[in-house]
Specification:
Elements lengths: L2 H9 L5 E7 L7 E2 L2 E2 L2 E8 L4 H10 L8 H16 L3 E3 L9 H9 L2 E2 L5 E2 L7 E9 L14 H4 L14 E2 L2 E2 L1 H8 L2 H5 L1 H4 L2 H4 L11 H10 L3
Antiparallel strand pairs: 1-4, 2-3, 4-8, 5-8, 6-7, 9-10
The structure holds cobalamin and iron/sulfur cluster (2 copies).
Length: 224
Amino acid sequence: MNLLASIEERLAPHGILLRGAVSFDEGEGPPVGDGFARIVVLLGNVGGSVWQPFSAWRKSQPDGGGVHPLDNWSRAVIQPIADAFSAAAYYPSDTPWWPFQQWAVKAEGLQASPLGLLIHPEYGLWHGYRGALGFAEPLRVSAAHVRDFPCEGCLEKPCLNSCPVDAVDPASFDVKACRSYLSSAAGQSGCMIKGCLARNACPVGEAYRYPTEQIVFHMRALDI
Ligand code: B12
Ligand code: SF4
Ligand code: SF4
């Protein structure tokens, strides 16, 4: 079995999928040991794929998984795999931030929706990244680039007309307006329990929509 297939097999019970790979020239990638990665393999969730395994882990933890349980779970799952394969592990919550979205654009050919979230032709906006593995040696990885960009043919763009405070705009995301709405009574009974109305308005990937508990979890994690 090749390296990536072995990694895929170890990640599968946790609902984490391989989400493409980015190759780097010598010295251009993120650090691995004393050198730099020649390839970074992205690991992510598709729809609610991680929710059950993550929830089960959380219940098994005396502290419920800590203050940032999804980040802690991601490390608990991914770090042993990185160690077993002599890879470096990178996480979306690491600071300074690794450029996960830039990597994803290169890895799978995804493009940004007007919300800033990358859209996948099948999963829509219902996918994310849990980590990445960096290898010092180049690996041969078959490219799985998506060609369709759903936003191109979406003329009405309902995502842009659904935010109650017009926080979303293709040029920028008004984090302040969003946060202040979320902390209001209307926000608490709206987006905080229903999820971001702009993200919900997108018709692509309906079948991959996160389960309600996961949506509420992510909204609370925004740390309003
Ligand atoms: C800071 C941050 C936030 C902040 C501010 C976001 C903002 N738009 O300003 C807050 C807390 C508000 C936030 C909110 C959310 N976020 Co956020 N966030 C991040 C984080 C940690 C860092 C982003 C960053 O600045 N990176 C630094 C730069 C150097 O990296 P970058 O890859 O170059 O990213 C920038 C560019 O790629 C650019 N970009 C976007 N698309 C494209 C396309 C092209 C072609 C190019 C060149 C650039 C580009 O946007 C990024 C800057 O915001 C990333 C994780 C990560 N490490 O990347 C998640 C991340 C971007 N967030 C994510 C998500 C899902 C959300 C939420 C939906 C959370 C929720 N409630 O469920 C909301 C939605 C907000 C929105 N409409 O954008 C996902 C996006 C997944 C995807 N499908 O694209 C990420 C990747 C985390 C993850 N684990 O998967 N987020
Ligand atoms: S509603 Fe249309 S424009 Fe907005 S993210 Fe979905 S496909 Fe793209
Ligand atoms: S969470 Fe609500 S307020 Fe924030 S961008 Fe989405 S729709 Fe707008």
